[in-house]
Amino acid sequence: MTSPPTESASRRPTRQRAALAELMAETSEFLSAQDLHSKLQSRGDSVGLATVYRNLQAMAADGDVDVLRTDDGECVYRSCATDAHHHHLVCRECGRTVEVEGPAVEKWAAEVARANGFSDVTHTIELFGTCTSH
Amino acid sequence: MTSPPTESASRRPTRQRAALAELMAETSEFLSAQDLHSKLQSRGDSVGLATVYRNLQAMAADGDVDVLRTDDGECVYRSCATDAHHHHLVCRECGRTVEVEGPAVEKWAAEVARANGFSDVTHTIELFGTCTSH
DNA sequence: ACCGTGTTTGACAATCATTCTCATCTGAGT
DNA sequence: ACTCAGATGAGAATGATTGTCAAACACGGT
């Protein structure tokens, strides 16, 4: 994102937040809030659904997790591998994800925006494809 | 879109479809299905909400309208100005939209995909900014 | 260790866009 | 006019996300 990082307000550490963070840390695929919630349940770390949503939003605002929307509009989350701005190439069969950087695109986006007199530009770029194993 | 055009099955012409198509033709901004539905109502062309959804989906599948998702997940539609593949630069204040083409991005997307062994790639690219009048 | 206070949580209700159901209607060919 | 598959509409159903609010909790001061 090109947007200024919505600065992380001081958040208080809690068992629930920790459980969620830990789960996300060991997962590499994108999961929905609902998925994460039930994974926590079955693992014994009971956390309310609303809490999962609240924390995911907070983490996303702080840039600690990536968010993207599936074709059917559901939000899916995944912990960032890098701090840097990046995009995703997702396999529509198995969900395997590759984080890609695109200096070229960033530049293009900025230029297009400037050329049209738009300021404060952000962009959404996601690539979907089918990976080799399919 | 890079995806093969889901070929338009033969669609039967109906009053409802015509009304919707006409409304879209005279509108240049992105509107949600709900918006379109109520505009049709207040204009006298009564059309069921489900029908609006069905037709919008059909039109989108045929590539007759552009679809994109607002930040809060709502789908918004607009008739395409061009047949060609393109993306949008949308003002987050007033909704003004500019259709942009990006040979550079298309190429980038294709290359990134190939480099990672993905085939059959499609992409989602939207730019949001604030236009001059704000 | 004990309190007071401002956060965070959880259970559940409420929203709300979108989809489904299914009986009825309509367009097009005969 | 007759028929039938595709289209429509009213309303119910779905399902993710958000709102509510009382109870539980973390933290700094004592």
Helices, strands, pairings?
The structure is a homodimer of 134-residue chains.
Chain A: H1 15-25, E1 31-32, H2 33-42, H3 49-61, E2 65-69, E3 75-79, E4 87-91, E5 97-100, H4 103-115, E6 119-130
Parallel strand pairs in A: 4-6
Antiparallel strand pairs in A: 1-3, 2-3, 4-5
Helix pairs in contact in A: 2-3
Chain B binds a DNA duplex (30 and 30 nucleotides) through α1 and α3.
**Largest sheet of chain A, if any?**
3 strands, antiparallel
pLDDT below 50 for ≥5 consecutive residues: which ranges of chain A? 1-6
Q: Which chains share the greatest interface?
A: A-B, 31 and 31 residues
Alpha-beta content class of chain A = alpha+beta
Q: What do we call the CATH homologous superfamily of chain A?
A: Winged helix-like DNA-binding domain superfamily/Winged helix DNA-binding domain
> What overall geometry of chain A do the principal axes of the alpha carbons give?
globular
Radius of gyration of chain A: 16 Å
Question: Can you tell me the CATH topology of chain A?
Answer: Arc Repressor Mutant, subunit A
How many helices of chain A does DSSP assign?
Answer: 4
Give the assembly state of these chains: homodimer
Describe this structure in words.
Two copies of one chain form a homodimer. Chain A has 134 residues and is of the alpha+beta class. The first copy, chain A, has one domain: Orthogonal Bundle (Arc Repressor Mutant, subunit A). A three-stranded antiparallel sheet of chain A has the order 1-3-2. Chain A has a three-stranded mixed sheet with strand order 5-4-6, covered by helices on one side. In chain A, a hairpin with a 5-residue loop joins strand 4 and strand 5. In chain A, helix 2 packs across helix 3. The longest helix of chain A has 13 residues. The N terminus of chain A is likely disordered. At the A-B interface, helix 4 and strand 6 of A face helix 4 and strand 6 of B. Strand 6 of chain A pairs antiparallel with strand 6 of chain B, so a sheet runs across the interface. Chain B binds a DNA duplex (30 and 30 nucleotides) through helix 1 and helix 3.
